[in-house]
Write a structure and sequence with these properties.
- The longest helix has 21 residues.
- It is elongated, with a radius of gyration of 21 Å.
- The protein has about 240 residues and is an alpha/beta fold.
- It folds into 2 domains: about 120 residues, Rossmann fold (3-Layer(aba) Sandwich), CATH 3.40.50.2300; about 110 residues, Beta Barrel (OB fold (Dihydrolipoamide Acetyltransferase, E2P)).
- Helix content is about 30%, strand content about 30%.
- It has a 5-stranded parallel beta sheet with strand order 2-1-3-4-5, with helices on both faces. A 5-stranded antiparallel beta sheet has the order 10-9-8-12-11.
- It is built from 7 helices and 15 strands.
Length: about 240
């Protein structure tokens, strides 16, 4: 099990030291870093970390302010505060922090924090299994193909067929979009239009269009997907904007 980590600290040396210590652990994958609180939300949305290691004393937006906002998300990442100030500990745990690391960091305290994260994430994943790791069976003209839901960018209706567009292939099936939507229930898919079903985890940008409609840009996709006015509000809520 790899734990995806985002490290946030406005001090470059402290940030580099923490990343260095975290990289000693094979269970940890540091997927990004940020040098201010304002950058956290875009990083969290783009990278989907399991955990944010968060400094408290930062200019403009403090780590506590960031934690408070992150807790309003539907699926907030775990938070580990990493700071030079012990006096924030009581307030920090109001935001359900997993741990509170004090600078200067050392291998022992980082290891204890990693072990605590592993325990918490293991329990969470046992109670909420990831359905996107199970393959979707798709009936095509010459048989049945099996696709991981997480590899699907979007599905769309085209005349009498449905196209399933993945990161490297497009499959054509007679299965209706409504039926596909039911099969993908529990995976992060959202109806943006009567003819489109989109993998929310692939969304990079919401682009204003005409008459209150939008388009979405997807990672690894060369064309933008329409979002009709009827679905915009719900989509924004799902994207936690």
């Amino acid at each position: 099990m790899k734990i995806r980590v985002l490290v946030v600290d406005d001090e470059p040396l402290s940030r580099a030291e923490l990343i260095h210590l975290l990289n000693h652990h094979s269970q940890i994958e540091v997927i990004g870093e940020a040098d201010c609180g304002e950058a956290v939300f875009e990083k969290v949305f783009q990278l989907q970390p399991d955990v944010v290691f968060l400094d408290i004393e930062m200019a403009e937006l403090s780590g506590l302010d960031v934690a408070k906002m992150l807790q309003q998300m539907k699926k907030p990442p775990y938070i580990v505060f990493a700071t030079a100030y012990p006096n924030y500990a009581v307030e920090a745990f109001r935001y359900e922090a997993i741990d509170y690391l004090l600078k200067p960091f050392n291998e022992e305290q980082v290891q204890e924090s990693v072990m605590r994260l592993i325990r918490n994430l293991s329990e969470k994943r046992e109670n909420h299994p990831d359905l996107s790791s199970r393959k979707l069976a798709i009936e095509v003209e010459d048989g049945i193909v099996y696709v991981l839901p997480r590899d699907i960018l979007y599905c769309c209706r085209e005349e009498r067929d449905t196209l399933i567009v993945t990161t490297d292939k497009t499959f054509q099936t007679k299965v209706s979009l409504k039926e596909l939507e039911q099969k993908l229930k529990g995976s992060p898919f959202f109806r943006t239009h009567k003819s489109y079903l989109v993998n929310i985890e692939k969304v990079e940008q919401l682009i204003p269009w005409f008459n209150g409609a939008y388009h979405v840009a997807l990672t690894g996709c060369h064309e933008n997907i329409p979002v009709s006015r009827n679905y915009v509000k719900a989509l924004r809520e799902v994207l936690e904007l």
